[in-house]
Amino acid sequence: MTQKGFYFDMTACIGCKTCQIACKDKNDLKVGVLYRKVSSFEGGKFPKPWMYHLSMSCNHCAKPKCVENCPTGALYKRADGIVAQDIEKCIGCKYCIWSCPYGAPQYKEDQGKVGKCDMCADLLDKGENPACVDACVMRVIQYGELDELKQKYQGTQDLAVLPESNITKPSVLINAKPVAEKGA
Amino acid sequence: MGEWSLVIFTILMQTAIGAYLWATLMKSRKQERDFNKNNIAILALTAVAMIVSLMHLGTPSGALRALLNVKSSWLSREILFSGAFFGLVFITVLGDKLKLNGSQKVLLGWVTSVVGLLSVFSMSKLYMSSIIPAWNSRTTMLDFFVTTIVLGGIMLLVTSLKELEGEVAKLSIVMAAAVLIHAAVFPSFVAGLGAGTAAAQTSAMKLAQAYGGMLILRWVLVLGGVGLVILSQYKKQQESTYIYLALAALVLGQIAGRYIFFAVGVARGVGVI
């Protein structure tokens, strides 16, 4: 089994949220439901204030707690490592929401089911890119085989604002600003 | 707080399972006890619990699919054991019609009790496997088993006081011990949350502030409730009055406790480590 993942270059992200909107549009999400979300963090004081943005979706973890805990098997891991969902099987119990340290699964009130980022698997299967990757004006989101991304880029899975990566082993590589690093 | 269905489901299941377990233990001391009223009440509570649990689901019509991932999901296991418990209680109620003999009834009693305990265990592990620090603790398991012992005990007392002649004192001591152990552990649980991650600290803050008054009321009701059960043994004239008062105090106290359990749960996440 291989493992696909995302790369995010925080150092160049301007927080425009185009990825968030492209994702929302692609997945036709209602108000309040986001498969990819940009969070902004700020702190410090003059003369050294700081700010950074973090664009995060499902991290298609190597050890996904959502898949382990899902009672119906609606959430599953594809051979390429993507954490996908068989929406027909979902019963809307929301246990995946209680399981994910990244808030990736989202409850869709109108459908009585949960939905989540599947890395635009339908587009990938057609040889295209995920909507967020294509939409990013700063080109700070990339995707691919996690091993290849790790060879190409520097990065971490642990930030000061994220739960420890050993909980679920997220398939994401983040080029963090020094101020965002764990223990900073 | 939109988890009323889970408050009711967990409380009713634990009460029913505890009452069955106590009845099985008491029967092992004196065979002729049959606890018919208790068995029918357990069946009714379990049925209501399972129906109420459906209200938690966004797609209740798919409820049976919750059994599809028994190999890794504690939620699947909880539903499996709860459903099996219901079926076994049903057989217990039909016991005489099915012409079960004495040893078959004893076996059925213990098998049903073990399945019930596995249901409470799965229910505990379900919450302990979440990303919510206030649930992700051994205190959750203690809470659920104490509820099983205490509410199960009071239910058996209410349905079968006459049949329990001579055992009430022992039963009340076990109930009181369970509550005291829970009460003794609770402060260190809250302190542990206070010293934990940001999500844990938020839960501790909610316990101390927004839900502080309710928490005190909860412990007064539960400690008072077991106190009333013990007192009933010294006031034999009004024994059943004391037992009914204890029932009201214990049920209200445990429901308040479970409400608080769900209300203070804060998930870890991006920015809420």
Descriptive account of the structure:
The complex is a heterodimer of chains A (184) and B (273). With 184 residues, chain A is of the alpha+beta class. Chain A has a single domain, classed as Alpha-Beta Plaits (2-Layer Sandwich), CATH 3.30.70. Chain A contains 5 helices and 9 strands, in the order E-H-E-E-H-E-E-E-E-H-H-E-H-E. In chain A, the strands form 4 sheets. Chain A has a 3-stranded mixed beta sheet with strand order 8-1-9. Chain A has a two-stranded antiparallel sheet with strand order 2-3. In chain A, a hairpin with a 4-residue loop joins strand 6 and strand 7. The N and C termini of chain A lie far apart (35 Å). The mean pLDDT of chain A is 96. Chain B is an all-alpha fold. Chain B has one domain (4-263): Formate dehydrogenase/DMSO reductase domain (Formate dehydrogenase/DMSO reductase fold, Up-down Bundle). Chain B is 73% helix and 0% strand. Chain B contains 9 helices and no strands. Chain B has helices at 4-29, 36-54, 74-93, 102-128, 138-160, 168-194, 198-208, 212-232, 239-263. In chain B, helix 4 packs antiparallel against helix 5. The mean pLDDT of chain B is 95. The chains are: A alpha+beta (184), B mainly alpha (273). The A-B interface holds A 37, 39, 41, 54, 56, 65, 67-74, 89-95, 97-103, 107-109, 111-114, 160-163, 167 and B 56-60, 62-63, 65-69, 72-76, 79, 126, 129-132, 197, 267-271, 273.
